[in-house]
Amino acid sequence: xxxxxxxxxxxxxxxxxxxxxxxxxxxxxxxxxxxxxxxxxxxxxxxxxxxxxxxxxxxxxxxxxxxxxxxxxxxxxxxxxxxxxxxxxxxxxxxxxxxxxxxxxxxxxxxxxxxxxxxxxxxxxxxxxxxxxxxxxxxxxxxxxxxxxxxxxxxxxxxxxxxxxxxxxxxxxxxxxxxxxxxxxxxxxxxxxxxxxxxxxxxxxxxxxxxxxxxxxxxxxxxxxxxxxxxxxxxxxxxxxxxxxxxxxxxxxxxxxxxxxxxxxxxxxxxxxxxxxxxxxxxxxxxxxxxxxxxxxxxxxxxxxxxxxxxxxxxxxxxxxxxxxxxxxxxxxxxxxxxxxxxxxxxxxxxxxxxxxxxxxxxxxxxxxxxxxxxxxxxxxxxxxxxxxxxxxxxxxxxxxxxxxxxxxxxxxxxxxxxxxxxxxxxxxxxxxxxxxxxxxxxxxxxxxxxxxxxxxxxxxxxxxxxxxxxxxxxxxxxxxxxxxxxxxxxxxxxxxxxxxxx
Length: 503
Known about the structure:
503 residues; mainly alpha
């Protein structure tokens, strides 16, 4: 018995049975795989669509599908970040997820309807969707399903089981989309849109089923304790930051099209898509460390430095491969792309490094709740990227790449300096009172040790202090108490193998 207790204590204290940070590698890997699988099956989807539909139909459908994705992103309202950063107590976690899903789905449907109403102003060629009642309702529902499926990804990330995103968001959605286009050719352009919409709907349904089976999710409409109102400002600040970050991606192609023409716009699109896969490395690692630090706030500094090393170790060699072999990659699309887009791709590959710095620092600011600095960093990036592109695009396509690199470099330096010089925002309670009395929490240069918001979640004693997470989702939270009946009040978060008590 004593030997068992000692081995359990060693595991909890982080001895040889536990290697902290390994989940960052694992989570980063699965998040990156999910991105690659989604992109790969999306490519297959468009290949299938091109065989069954005409080029004009594909052109119109791309506008509607892009609008669906944009509206879904807008409808998240930052709740995807809140579900990870501020999970509710175990007893009301189901209610938090339920309310977030209902709100995001409803906003997505409403956003789709509003988009259709405004088509006469900015999309006269797409009014056929609005003029047909069934297609109009279906489009709005597809927007809601797309938003809900995006939100569920955050639930799996919060539970530190991102491998389910590969299965659901990647494989399930991709296969569902690819299987439908040939069947819906009779719907014309809307058949392509409906194919993508079916993928979103199937993803949402399968995700809810997996949430129920894997995490014990049950619909719960209670409003108290969900922390959604309490963290509304955090949600909206992170949401505004994400939208600003998206602005250059939407505006720059229009600038290229207007100043350089359709051919150059095509070269830009292909080069940027390759660079986007390169930038997915830093995004995947950032999302992984965002979930990990949210579970173990006391390890903020350690995990952020570890994630920086991971990004550097992967991003630099990957950028070098693209710089050296960019011509071969572009040859796949044609000789014209290899000739005209390679200089831009080279610049974008170099720019992956400042993009990685900016991405890493912004995730750290979000974790430290430095929301003004987070928004400011993205404003700097968007303003410089768009402004410099508009000013110098007529000199050639490569100058658009320089604008992107400069915007991210300046924003990354600003975000990093804000992180180092700033102070983490303490949670309410003792830490908040100490700050009000003139005491300051340690900066990033020290140790991030904000106290949990729920004082009852604090556990005293050296053994408990060494536990990896002592909040409402503590690893032993699901262990039933003898004589007390167990009820499925919240998701049963997975227990890492290295942290399970020895038999």
